[in-house]
Amino acid sequence: MRKHVLVVDDDPNLGAVLEAELTKRDYRVTLSLSPHDALTLLGTAADDIDVILTDFQMQGVSGAELCAKVVESGRNVPVIVMTSFGSMDSAVAAIRAGAYDYVTKPLDADDLALTLDRGVKERALREEVRRLRLGLEGSDRFEDMIGSSPQMAKAYDLISRVAKSEATVLITGESGTGKELAAKAIHARSQRSAGPFIAINCAAMPEPLLESELFGHVKGAFTDARQSRRGLFLKAAGGTLFLDEIGEMPAGMQAKLLRALQERTVRPVGGDEEIEFDTRIVAATNRDLEHEVAEKRFREDLFYRINVVRVELPPLRARGRDILTLANYLLTRSQPNGQRVVGFTSAVVDAMLTYSWPGNVRELQNCMERAVALAEFDHLRLEDFPEKLRDVKEAPMAIESNDPAELITAAELERRYIAHVVAAVKGNKTLAARVLGLDRRTIYRKLEGREPPQRSPSVAPEEHGSALS
After folding, report:
1. Structural domain range at position 352
2. pTM for this structure?
3. Integer Cα distance of 237 and 266 in angstroms
């Protein structure tokens, strides 16, 4: 489908030249000689317009005012503003009003086409974010878990099947991957869903206190035991007890837990009687328990007792575009009093998909809350995020690898090296062009991963009635 650009310029000669030039480049062009008419058209056909190209200086409404009105309308259409050469004040005003980018006159046809193509890509990304937001109530949700990647779909299927049984479940995954949410999903889909769900972090307290919390104690069992107290195994009767970070449990407590799971009874601290419990156990850890068993830090018999069914949660970096789905959800949740920020720029999307997210969903949530708090525009920009995300680098180039799955194309290798040089010179594309021995247009084209455009003859006044100026 041809890309659709709305050109807004009250100079009919320049408008005609732009229409002719862009039509040759396979754009479908709608020309409006009035900003007011353009806004009317945008109100009725916004879904059909991929990008807006507008002059800055026009009668009645300036390009900055047009940008502001487009943003106010909630239309996800990027606006590119044409400004006079050297007029940085106009460019800054347009960006502050919400323009996606600007180009300076006299216009270079190739640079203009590349900028418009980036605007079209931005429009597609904004639409994807919008679809992700709308889809949160559909297939992207599983109980309180969000995402639809193949890895998560596999976890959802296993959770659904194991939830129907009474089997003990071990949930594994890096810190911040949502292990407690998975445990709650198992509980919610089980026959025990009407009973309590109680969670305890086994790494958060010393052994004597952990034993008292789990098994309870009788009056006088220790100094502060002024009355008897039921433990969590009994409080969770008819429901689910979630033992988080079980890999951190002290060795002495592991032996007591093993006996409780084998006998299905608990003995309160200081007590003589064994009390039966009717509680399902779900455990979780971010450790490699097989390694912990081999190193004698975790009991092998306890490992086999809790590892009846294992649910593995993937790290966020392995979940593909689930990252955007989650970011979109967190964007809305970070604005409980109304949505001031509605999306992300394409640079943010690229950084999110490239960053390794060592803290997983918890780190993403932290970054989103920070970005929303600092945002000045209706779309989050890289400047709103922590430096670690702004400085994200692409995955290492697998030149010496013998694994076909890790090898990349020559074009991708070239693109990554160009991106590396541009980053090394702090974004100065003139200096990057000198280092690489390429012109600036070629750098833009290769960074976009595009084939060389069919270069048209220079636009001359005698051919089209007016130069692009």
Report:
1. 319-390
2. 0.62
3. 12
